[in-house]
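User: Before I run my own analysis I want an independent prediction to cross-check against. Here's the chain; please return only the structure tokens and, at the end, one sentence I can use as a sanity check.
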Amino acid sequence: MKDEYKMSMKTIIRYIRDFSIVVAGIAVTLYVNYRITNQGEKRDINLYLNAIKLEMEENIKTLDKAIEYIKPSIRYSQYLQTHNKESLDKDTINSYVPVFYSSQSFTFKTNAFEMFKSSGVMRLMNDKELLLTIWDVYAQLTDLKELLDWSDQIKTNDLIKEASESIVVKDGKPKLSTENAPMYSFYVIGIPENMLNGCNEVMPKLKELAERL
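Assistant: Structure tokens:
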């Protein structure tokens, strides 16, 4: 009876030992897998955030170009707003010909953000505040793009209409007249100012996000 008891205890101890080894093995395997998965997730997050950072830097350059493009329009707008039509100087008006007879569209990059959204990696981010900031900045870029496109379309429509009414013939060649302050309505109501204000509002947020990333 005593020998049987010893055998039973040895068997139980062996089972417990073997079971413990199996459990420990599973635990180690799970831990290793977790570390590998966690490192992979962090790597994926960093890759996407780095892509967004590079995209932000490109958008900052585009926005800089937009601001520089708008500045001469601001000067022309301010000139018209501070003078009545009778006091406008013809030479000054002529100096702004490249401004009011030009049109340009600007496109902001969003590919990295779109890939980030569709990848599923976004849900793995622990920094939810940063995630919300990224969403907000891209939303503001979209709104700014719509403002710039709308303004450019209004300018283009006015330009086409005015050009059809203001072409004169000089030395046998058609030429746009600058007698009556071209694009007066577009500039005097302050559309360029609205464009510049929109750009200046978004620019600091782009730079701040690029620095955080």
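Sanity check: The first strand starts at residue 167 and ends at 170.
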